[in-house]
Design brief:
By secondary structure, the chain is mainly alpha-helical. The chain has a domain at 28-119: Four Helix Bundle (Hemerythrin (Met), subunit A). 61% of the residues lie in helices and 4% in strands. The chain contains 5 helices and 2 strands, in the order E-E-H-H-H-H-H. A two-stranded antiparallel sheet has the order 1-2. Strand 1 and strand 2 (15-17) form a beta hairpin. Helix 2 (28-47) runs antiparallel to helix 3. The longest helix is centred in the middle third of the chain and has 21 residues, at 51-71. The protein is globular and about 60 Å long.
């Protein structure tokens, strides 16, 4: 016999059950829409020699990817492997401030991300690095600090 527990929370506009809140959690499509811009900024921050900013975007990107695995457990094993095997070398290159190693590791990271899109039945999703830096950030700000 299970107890009937109905928990209700307020968002300031209405009361919601926990089940309603769970339905509002982002799926992979929304989470990945946040990963792409971070990966874009990561690359161009490193190219600008702003290693602190590149590291910031790397950590932010990884945080989103971990959230993907938490939100969608069927991706957990592959996401963990991706983070360790494919993102790990990017982290190392950032720490060593090695642009050549970074570019190689970054290209591999993107290639493997697109590989996983295919593994999970979405070979039509192919992320590419935008051809220019984002125009809404000064990627050199604080680079010498």
């Amino acid at each position: 016999m299970t107890a009937d527990h109905t928990h209700v929370v307020s968002n300031g506009k209405r009361e919601l059950t926990l089940d309603e809140l769970a339905l509002m959690q982002p799926g992979m499509d929304r989470l990945m829409a946040e990963v792409g811009p971070r990966a874009h900024r990561l690359y161009y921050a490193a190219k600008a020699g702003n290693w602190r900013l590149a590291d910031y975007f790397f950590r932010s990107m990884v945080k989103q990817l971990r959230l993907c695995a938490t939100s969608r457990p069927k991706y957990d094993a592959d996401m963990t492997a991706y983070l360790d095997e494919d993102c790990g070398p990017v982290r190392t290159a950032l720490r060593e401030r090695d642009l050549a190693a970074f570019e190689t590791a970054y290209a591999r990271m993107v290639e493997r991300a697109n590989h996983y899109h295919g593994v999970f039945g979405k070979p039509y999703i192919v992320w590419v690095l935008p051809p220019s830096p984002p125009d809404d950030l000064d990627l050199s700000a604080g680079a010498d600090e």
